[in-house]
Amino acid sequence: MAISLSLFAIGILYTDNHSKTILTDKDLQLPDTGRALSATDEDAQSRKDDIIKQVIQSANQEKEETRTDRGADQESHQLKQQSALNSDKVGEKDALLTKTNKQTDQSPMPAAWERQLRDRLIKASVYLSLPATKNNRRFTRELRMRIKEVQRVLGDAIKDSDMPKNAYEKWKAMDQLLEKGKQMQYESANEVKKLRAMLHSTEEQLRVHKKQTMSFATMVEKLRAMLHSTEEQLQVHKKQTMFLTQLTAKTLPKGLHCLPLRLTTEYYNLNSSEQQFPNQEILDNPLLHHIALFSDNVLAAAVVVNSTVTNSKHPSKLVFHLVSDRLSYAAMRMWFLVNPPGKATIQVQNIDEFTWLNSSYSPVLKQLHSQSMIDYYFRAHSANSDSNLKYRNPKYLSILNHLRFYLPEIFPKLNKVLFLDDDIVVQKDLTGLWSLDLKGKVNGAVETCRESFHRFDTYLNFSNPLISNNFDPRACGWAYGMNLFDLEEWKRQNITDVYHSWQKLNHDRQLWKLGTLPPGLITLWKRTHPLDRRWHVLGLGYNPNVSQIEIERGAVIHYNGNMKPWLEIGIPKYRKYWAKYVDYVNVYLRECNINP
Questions:
Q1: Residues 234-254: pLDDT tens digits?
Q2: Do residues 128 and 145 lie in contact, with contact meaning Cβ atoms separated by under 8 Å?
Q3: Closest of 570, 574, 567, 572 to residue 546, by C-alpha
């Protein structure tokens, strides 16, 4: 009798002589669930199982009675005779079996169920090779166990009557496990679909990002072209006065251009006696609290002085030493003449009055006035220029920015000086700073190495042996903006000479590129005493995530960065701390349309 079996998993057709034919990819699809043995039709399955058990029992009973080995055709004839003898008992069950067989071509028939077991063995072997199932160790372990059980049941049997009584249970267990493997195949297919969908979504996002990057690159090129055009225009107007050139380069709002002009006009309308400040005789008293402020921004300097005096417990002990350039000098004096700092004392000096500060004495002054330095900072098309817009800020060409390295020369009779930048706001009394013990160090400052990018290797060129042989690249940086300087230790350790030496070595900008912090880190290396972070809170000029709690408990808050509070680009939520100390009802501010 010919046997024909089609395997749903790999598409192999088996015949009685065990030949096989490989089907096409279309035939390799899983069988329709409507044709598989229904796990939900429990009543039909139960009736079919009873019939199978009856057939097995009848075959075994016949075997015991005849005890002879008959051929496959004689066995089929005997089974038919036995079915006729038991027709009264199993008639109804035969009808149900016929109905069930119409629903599925996978249900084992009474005369061929042994071959169905062998069919399950082949299917099980296939599942062991499929990726979705063979990677499931628990499933493969259980499937191998079922295969061994079925193989032991089959043994050397060549016909149904040779099967043991537990063959049905083994068949059922195997079928249930194969059904589980089939479900795993379906789930694996669904996962593949999901992964493909995710991959497609990722590819779409990458395409969008690529377009955005190209758009950004185009915008940068346009900005560079605009910058180049602006530099050409500046060359045409280079014969304009230094006053207008510097104010334009600083790109201040119109109101801050108006304010110094208005104040300067008023100042020169005063007579000589009206241009003087009171209490000038106590400027060198070492028992008082001296504050150094170097600025050309009238409004910024006003906020520093006002906030310091407002929050001081002893304002009469405060002495402000304000140094400005010749363009802002008259305006700065006029502002504090009409807006005196309460009980505090103030001095306003012109940097041009420091005759000792010349290019013969100061290497940095000689470098700042050199054409090569101007080309480096302002000419993008120059071969030795840097394309970073950060380097185009005119503050790096201002000697006011480097004046902090000459404190003993400016204040020869003072022992300690508190240095403040003009972009800070004082929120608490600073009296405690003057009583701090710096333990023989020159500089008292807050360290900034909570972030990895505020270490020495960020500011200095460690590929140069002069730097790598003398400094630690992971050393913690510190901040300018609020610094307590011991001028006695400064003079004892010749700090200004150390600064000059390093400035001469950096004439070609191979040790550091710009600013005053890199030479400050070098000059004051191992000479800085760390202060409590609450004295000086940084980042309000570039970091929108500074904690409000940290800001409010800070003695000094610092708007370091490009987003200054007096500019439109200032971070809005931080502007209120600065605006609190601006007198917007002041007549000069109203005339120049400087509003909150």
A1: 766 665 544 443 343 356 788
A2: no
A3: 574
Q: Is residue 398 within 8 Å of residue 408, measured between CB atoms?
A: no
Eight-class DSSP state of 555: S
State the CB neighbour count (10 A cutoff) for residue 454.
Answer: 17
Q: Whole-number mean pLDDT of the chain?
A: 77
Answer whether 0.70 is exceeded by the pTM: no
Whole-angstrom CA distances from 535 to 138, 419, 483 are 63, 13, 10
Which residue type occupies 170? K
Answer for the pair 328, 260: CB distance below 8 angstroms, yes or no.
yes
**Which residues are CB-contacts of 281 (< 8 A; sequence separation ≥ 6)?**
none
List pLDDT tens digits, range 573-592: 999 999 999 999 999 999 99
Which residues does residue 558 pair with via DSSP β-bridges, in sequence order?
A: 424
Burial letters for 535-547: b for 16+ Cβ neighbours within 10 Å, e otherwise?
Answer: bbbbbbbeeeebe
509: tokens are: 């900008």
pLDDT at 131: 75
Count of H-run helices and E-run strands, the chain: 22, 13
Going by C-alpha positions, the residue among 45, 50, 51 that lies closest to residue 83 is 51
pLDDT (mean) for 506-514: 87
Nearest of 163, 115, 151 to residue 16 by alpha carbon: 115
| pLDDT in the model for residue 133 | 67
pLDDT at 372: 73
Q: What are phi and psi of 557, to 5 degrees?
A: -110, 140
What's 455's DSSP letter? B
- The single residue listed with the structure tokens 């020159």 is 442
The first and second tokens of residue 526, run together, are: 């191992």
pLDDT value for 197 = 84
Q: Is 319:291 a contact under the CB 8 Å cutoff?
A: yes
pLDDT value at residue 163? 64
Contacts for 424 with CB less than 8 Å, ≥ 6 apart: 304, 481, 482, 556, 557, 558, 559
* Distance from chain centroid for Cα 508: 35
Q: Which residue's structure tokens are 């267990």? A: 173
Q: What is the Cα 453 distance to its own chain's centre?
A: 14
Three-state DSSP at 20 gives strand
Residue 109 CB neighbour total at 10 angstroms: 14
- Of 189-198, 267-276, 485-494, the one with minimum mean pLDDT is 189-198
- Using the predicted structure, report yes or no on whether residue 152 has a pLDDT greater than 80: no
Main-chain phi, psi angles of 247, to 5 degrees = -65, -40
Alpha helices in 104-166 (DSSP H): 113-129, 131-134, 137-154
Quick check: 14 and 5 in contact, CB under 8 A? yes
Q: Give the model confidence (pLDDT) of 252-306 as tens digits.
A: 788 999 999 999 999 999 999 999 999 999 999 999 999 999 999 999 999 999 9
User: 292 pairs with which residues across the strands?
Assistant: 321, 419
How far apart are alpha carbons 116 and 110 in whole angstroms?
Answer: 10
Neighbours of 215 (CB within 10 A): 10
